[in-house]
Write a structure and sequence with these properties.
The complex is a heterodimer of chains A (300) and B (424). Chain A is mainly alpha-helical. Chain A folds into two domains: 42 residues; 239 residues, Orthogonal Bundle (MetI-like fold). Chain A is built from 13 helices and two strands; from the N terminus they run H-E-E-H-H-H-H-H-H-H-H-H-H-H-H. A two-stranded antiparallel ribbon of chain A has the order 1-2. In chain A, strand 1 and strand 2 form a beta hairpin. Chain B is an alpha/beta fold and 424 residues long. Chain B folds into two domains: 170 residues, 3-Layer(aba) Sandwich (D-Maltodextrin-Binding Protein, domain 2); 211 residues, 3-Layer(aba) Sandwich (D-Maltodextrin-Binding Protein, domain 2), CATH 3.40.190. In chain B, strands 1, 2, 3, 6, 7, 8, 9, 10 and 11 form a nine-stranded mixed beta sheet that branches. The chains are: A mainly alpha (300), B alpha/beta (424). The interface between A and B is medium-sized, with 30 and 36 residues. Chain A: Keywords: Cell membrane, Membrane, Transmembrane, Transmembrane helix, Transport.
Chain lengths: 300, 424
């Protein structure tokens, strides 16, 4: 009896120690993540403005309104396009670039130059990148427009950020320019962890570079591909800064994403409750993607 | 160990006494939207001068730029951390603070002898709500079409006196291969200055005021055909090529730069931007200005100028109303207003502060034109309710890019206005 109670006490002490160790992090999460998330869900059931201290309970009216808001459809579509292009570029293109640079196709000096040049944009602040590209894309006086005119391609000249058909794609392009090199660096690290003798064995068997890529590199960095894909999709869902800097969701809401829609509702339209509704929707989409990631990783 | 304890006790004592020292002064928080170097040069000096004259008051000043200010003040309102003194545009932007009881009633204070004759009635009126004064004007601004004299002379063109002349002028400039108007509508407030002026000209004044302030019956809100006609006219400017290529992708600052560089014949600028044209290529070529000309036979008013006073409000919850008022009294005194004008290049709402000694001849002439006008058509995006204004803001871009029609825009405005009215 005494042995068992001593054992229980020791286990309890151990358990308490564990809880004490994680308590600060847990407290931080509750105060700054779970608490605000739950409060936000509560806010989404009310209608109130930043100016007024009166709150009207509206139940699920904000959700109904969001569902019928054409700007929400535009934003959701833009986020989806953003995610698809980002996955293609930041996973597909970045992995290919990483494989080429790691395959010693180029001399070391050239490979290092390429690597640095591709990685460099990712260390620049998003606001700076957005403003610089905004200037480059300025109609008539921007460098891109002038290049098109000088090279006889004036028919391609466009107000890239000023036309509803091109604005979101121009922003997505800049985002890929900035982040593809960063993801490429992650893949390069992953590729270096793949045993070299596998490549050597395939070389002896006469496999081409492309065959080596598909049969060794891709399976070898499978885990990284999964994580990078999830990170890229989540990033596309949460995107705000580059869109806000370059187009602020315009022209005429054509490049609106969920992040800008949420921000606009809260800080421009004075609809805090409605903005919380958008935030809640973003939260649940992100949660679903996160759970999918956990499940996919467990399955492996 | 004893030493450690003694040191800790000493440090605690010193720290505890610090708030006591700070409490000797009355802290008045002051938030505005003039962070530009020339503006801060004035405000820094004014705060220092006021604090030197009032050692018991500590003015804690914070400044953010125009666009972020709109966000910041809303966050502060929502979190109930309203500064003692804060900036506001006039019209609905300020009225909604007053409507929600977030401003101190200044009616009685401004009736005092020291305030008498300081401001024109036209500057005070946009800061009134239900007969009460909720704000103090600090500067006045209005919008003018600036033109390059060299380009006008080159093509033998004259300043238009009617709106029909203005259209003909744009056609002549186009035919001559010039870009008639430099226009940057990336931030769509720029569009509201055109649209607001056209609404004022094409919609009867009483109807427009009733619509803007949501005083008309719900089924009659924004039903006057002048609104659609005004939007169609604005759209036609884009369609005919009066504006430069890709206006929606260009900032107002870039458009101003294009005009300064001589790449366009005209640009629509605010009076407070006049000083930026000094010592530029366009200053050498010569420039002049005119308001958007009167429109013959239009249903609205032709004697209004688009513009508005900006001002400061005092929080209804301030613990130091007297000190806050004293500071506003100080910075709007005739001496300080003169310093404000000469340091910043801006105008001032204080009568007699803008003189030949304190500003440029062009700014003086612009202010004279403002004084001669019968009144002001306030900035549209700060005069309408937020929801309706947001529709117009987006439409300013959508009409130019061709994915909106004037009729559809006004349908959306009506829906937004009705919803806002229902919520009040």
């Amino acid at each position: 009896m005494t042995d068992r109670s001593d054992h229980t006490r020791a286990t309890w002490r151990q358990s308490l120690q564990g809880w004490l160790w994680v308590a600060p992090a847990l407290l931080f999460l509750v105060v700054f993540v779970y608490g605000p998330a739950l409060t936000n869900i509560r806010f989404s059931l009310f209608s109130f403005s930043a100016m007024s201290l009166d709150w009207d309970f509206v139940g699920f009216d904000n959700y109904l309104r969001l569902w019928n808001d054409p700007k929400f459809t535009t934003a959701l579509t833009n986020n989806a396009i953003y995610a698809v292009i980002s996955v293609a570029c930041q996973v597909g293109v970045a992995l290919t670039l990483a494989a080429v640079l790691e395959a010693r196709v180029f001399p070391d000096l050239s490979a290092n130059l390429f690597r640095t040049a591709l990685f460099l944009p990712s260390i620049l602040p998003v606001v700076v990148v957005g403003l610089v590209w905004q200037l480059l894309m300025t109609p008539t006086t921007g460098l891109i427009d002038q290049l098109l005119w000088e090279t006889g391609l004036s028919s391609w000249s466009k107000a890239w950020l000023g036309e509803p058909d091109t604005a979101i794609f121009a922003v997505i392009f800049v985002s890929q320019w900035q982040w593809t090199g960063y993801i490429m660096a992650l893949f390069m690290v992953a590729i270096r962890a793949v045993p070299r003798d596998l490549y050597e064995a395939m070389e002896i068997d006469g496999a081409s570079g492309i065959q080596q890529f598909w049969h060794i590199t891709v399976p070898g960095v499978r885990e990284t591909i999964l994580i990078v894909t999830i990170i890229t999709i989540l990033g596309s869902l949460k995107v705000f800064d580059i869109v806000w800097v370059m187009t602020a969701g315009g022209p005429n809401h054509s490049s609106e994403v969920l992040g800008t829609l949420m921000y606009r509702a809260a800080f421009r339209d004075d609809m805090i409750g409605y903005s919380s509704t958008i935030a809640t929707v973003i939260f649940f989409i992100a949660l679903t993607i996160g759970l999918m990631q956990i499940k996919l990783q467990k399955d492996r | 160990m004893k030493h450690l304890l003694a040191m800790t006790a000493l440090a605690t004592g010193i720290l505890a006494s610090l708030p006591g020292l700070a409490q000797d002064k009355t802290v008045v928080s002051f938030l505005h939207k003039f962070p530009e170097p020339e503006n801060m040069a004035y405000f820094d000096a004014a705060v220092a001068e006021f604090e030197a004259a009032n050692p018991a008051i500590d003015i804690v000043m914070e400044s953010v730029a125009d666009e972020p200010y709109k966000d910041k003040i809303r966050v502060l309102m929502a979190s109930d951390q309203v500064p003692d003194i804060y900036f506001s545009w006039s019209g609905e932007f300020g009225r909604k603070f007053a409507r929600e009881g977030r401003t101190l009633d200044l009616t009685e204070a401004l009736a005092g002898p020291e305030w008498q004759g300081r401001f024109a009635a036209a500057s005070l009126e946009p800061f009134q709500f239900e007969g009460k004064q909720f704000g103090i004007p600090v500067n006045v601004d209005s919008k003018y079409m600036i033109y390059n004299k060299a380009i006008f002379e080159k093509h033998g063109l004259a300043v238009p006196t009617t709106f029909a002349d203005f259209i003909a002028l744009n056609d002549a400039l186009l035919a001559a291969g010039e870009v008639p108007i430099a226009y940057g509508n990336q931030s769509p407030w720029a569009a509201t200055h055109y649209i607001g002026d056209l609404f004022a000209k094409m919609v009867p004044d009483d109807v427009r005021q009733a619509d803007y302030q949501l005083l008309a019956p719900a089924d009659q809100l924004y039903t006057h055909p002048g609104y659609v006609e005004a939007l169609a006219l604005y759209k036609s400017f884009g369609d005919k090529g009066y504006f430069n290529n890709g206006a929606n992708a260009i900032s107002h600052q870039q458009a101003r730069g294009a005009f300064i560089a001589g790449r366009s014949a005209m640009v629509y600028l605010e009076l407070v931007e006049f000083y930026m044209l000094a010592d530029t290529p366009v200053a050498e070529q010569g420039w002049g200005f005119f308001p958007l000309p009167p429109m013959e036979g239009a249903a609205g008013r032709n004697d209004l100028l688009t513009g508005a006073p900006d001002g400061f409000l005092i929080s209804a919850k301030t613990e130091h109303p007297q000190e806050a008022l004293a500071f506003l009294n100080f910075i709007t005194s005739p001496e300080q207003a003169a310093k404000y004008v000469s340091t910043t290049g801006m105008t001032s709402a204080v009568i007699g502060s803008v003189t030949e000694e304190t500003t440029t001849p062009e700014t003086l002439a612009g202010l004279k034109a403002l004084e001669d006008a019968a009144g002001m058509a306030l900035w549209l995006d700060t005069d309408m309710d937020t929801a309706s204004a947001n529709v117009i803001l987006a439409a300013g871009q959508g009409l130019l890019s061709g994915d909106e029609t004037p009729e559809a825009v006004m349908e959306k405005v009506r829906a937004a206005a009705k919803e806002t009215l229902a919520q009040r």
